[in-house]
């Protein structure tokens, strides 16, 4: 898709080691491409080195080249808005969940219709995770259940329910048969996918757990909390090997932390966690110390509901008002985060 205009990013800041904020002023022009969604972007995931998949309120699932903003495929089939999208990295299969209570599988190189359907939940589907080998799918819903599916046949292999366990997010642990789940009952659970049984439940938080992610090495998970006016709103690091308590909290957002991701190692010697919030800010955190390393305010973008890491220096952020934002990390002298494109 052709570019429309450029504008300057005026709201970048970074944090010194003592926690004080240092304003950095204009950084670079933001490249504007044709928007790929006509309404709020609710979920986004990295598909291949240059590709991403996203879903939104307009009920379509879109595969884009995030470097150019070009739309490669647009899948239409859901009857209501998309709640989650996911994929096995470097695969040609994309999965989408919707408020229409179904999950669909799409082939990047196939026809425009869904390759497989996974019906079976009674309420909106709010959790979606595919196994690392892409053979199984796990779904979660506001009906208090999670289900495991055979990807090839579409058969539901097992179903488990827990009272008041309104699922908000699911993540599969790499190289392990475990699934991490966030819930509106303020709990983070670890499920054994082989029999779909709870293997562990972390101590409850004070607010709804809105999202979760698992580190590439499978050692840690991070979850985000709901909240308002700085109460709650934190992200929490959990050690999946020492499952008794939290390791660290990342505090600084003023509204619900809606998405959290681990960044691949690259620019810095220490691992980094990224969060996005309804307060229109994206923050980078030192995973181990909890220090805020950088903050980017996307004013006017509305709530930032989705975040994904494409590589060690690129984040994609889905917004309610202004589509998908491409964010770049740089490490000239101190770590900086800047918006470079939007589509």
Describe this structure in words.
By secondary structure, the protein is mainly beta. It contains no helices and 34 strands. A six-stranded mixed sheet has the order 1-4-34-33-32-31, with no helix packed on it. Strands 3-2-30-29-28-27 form a six-stranded antiparallel sheet, with no helix packed on it. A four-stranded antiparallel sheet has the order 5-6-7-8, with no helix packed on it. Strand 15 and strand 16 (156-161) form a beta hairpin. The radius of gyration is 19 Å and the shape is globular. Residues 1-26 have low confidence and may be disordered.
List keywords for this structure.
single chain; 343 residues; mainly beta; 6-stranded antiparallel β-sheet; disordered N terminus
Q: What is this structure's SSE topology?
A:
Elements (H helix, E strand, L loop, with lengths): L2 E6 L3 E4 L5 E3 L5 E5 L7 E8 L2 E6 L3 E6 L4 E7 L5 E6 L5 E6 L3 E6 L8 E4 L5 E6 L5 E6 L3 E6 L5 E6 L5 E6 L5 E6 L4 E5 L4 E5 L7 E6 L5 E6 L1 E2 L2 E2 L2 E5 L6 E5 L6 E6 L9 E6 L3 E6 L5 E6 L6 E8 L2 E6 L4 E8 L3 E8 L1
Parallel strand pairs: 4-34
Antiparallel strand pairs: 1-4, 2-3, 2-30, 5-6, 6-7, 7-8, 9-10, 10-11, 11-12, 13-14, 14-15, 15-16, 17-18, 18-19, 19-20, 21-22, 22-25, 23-24, 25-26, 27-28, 28-29, 29-30, 31-32, 32-33, 33-34
Offer a quick outline of the entry.
The protein has 343 residues and is mostly beta strands.
Report the average pLDDT across residues: 90
C-alpha-based Rg, rounded: 19 Å
- Total number of β-strand segments? 34
Helix content: under 10%
The largest sheet has its strands arranged as: 1-4-34-33-32-31
Poorly predicted regions: 1-26
Oligomer state of the chains in this structure: single chain
Termini Cα gap: 9 Å
Question: If helices are DSSP runs of H or I spanning 4 or more residues, what is the number of helices?
Answer: 0
The profile of the biggest β sheet is: 6 strands, mixed
Strand content: over 45%
Based on Cα principal axes, name the global outline. globular
């Amino acid at each position: 898709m052709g570019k429309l205009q450029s504008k300057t990013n005026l709201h970048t800041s970074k944090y010194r080691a003592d926690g004080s904020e240092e304003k950095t002023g204009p950084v670079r022009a933001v490249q504007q491409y044709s928007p790929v969604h006509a309404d709020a972007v609710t979920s986004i995931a990295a598909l291949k080195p240059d590709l991403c998949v996203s879903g939104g309120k307009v009920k379509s699932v879109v595969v884009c080249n995030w470097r150019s903003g070009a739309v490669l495929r647009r899948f239409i089939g859901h009857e209501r808005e998309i709640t989650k999208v996911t994929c096995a990295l470097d695969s040609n299969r994309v999965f989408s969940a919707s408020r229409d209570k179904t999950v669909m599988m799409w082939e990047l190189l196939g026809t425009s219709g869904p390759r497989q359907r996974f019906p079976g939940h009674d309420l909106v589907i709010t959790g979606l995770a595919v196994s690392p080998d892409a053979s199984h799918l796990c779904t979660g819903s506001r009906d208090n259940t999670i289900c495991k599916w055979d990807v090839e046949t579409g058969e539901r292999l097992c179903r488990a329910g827990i009272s008041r366990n309104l699922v908000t997010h699911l993540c599969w642990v790499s190289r392990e048969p475990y699934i991490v789940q966030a819930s509106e009952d303020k709990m983070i659970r670890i499920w054994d996918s082989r029999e779909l049984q709870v293997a562990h439940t972390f101590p409850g938080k004070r607010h709804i757990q809105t999202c979760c992610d698992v580190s590439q090495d499978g050692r840690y998970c991070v979850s985000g909390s709901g909240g308002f006016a700085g109460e709650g709103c934190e992200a929490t690091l959990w050690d999946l090997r020492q499952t008794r308590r939290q390791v660290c909290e990342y505090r600084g957002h003023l509204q619900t932390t809606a998405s959290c991701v681990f960044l691949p190692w690259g620019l810095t010697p220490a691992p980094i966690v990224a969060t996005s919030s309804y307060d229109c800010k994206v923050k980078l955190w030192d995973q181990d110390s909890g220090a805020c390393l950088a903050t980017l305010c996307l004013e006017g973008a509305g709530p930032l509901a989705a975040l994904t890491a494409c590589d060690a220096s690129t984040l994609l952020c889905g917004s309610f008002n202004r589509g998908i934002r491409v964010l770049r990390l740089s490490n000239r002298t101190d770590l900086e985060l800047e918006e470079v494109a939007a589509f």
